[in-house]
Amino acid sequence: MGTTLTNKNSIQVEIESRLKLGNACLFGAESFVFQFAIQKFKDQDILPVVLYWCETWSPTLREERRLRVFESRMLRRVFGPLRDKVTGEWRKLHNEELSDLYSLPNIVRAVESRRIRWAGHVARMGEGRGMQRILMGKPEGK
User: Cα–chain-centroid distance for residue 20?
Assistant: First the structure.
């Protein structure tokens, strides 16, 4: 799956490519949505593609918003429209309704959780490891 690196150390290109891959997974497997439970579908097929190597991201508010928009769009696509009880018309689900239907943490919290878990993993590494030296701010040598 690879990652995209830029000379300005910007993750905007990386997040954009991850969201495109997530859309491809969602629309490529759209016919299977109704055959599987939403938890299994989202956790095993789409989120791993979008969140690949997100431990290294430090997203800005704009990038976090793009991730939330992607997640809402995906959930609206999976859950479909809702018939209004009063008017009888079909309408899109609101964000609050989506969060009620899908109770797992949102995508931004998943990124934060993975970053914290990765930082703990790096902190437990030995002092001779490159990642641990960078985390502690002591990069010496090659």
Answer: 12
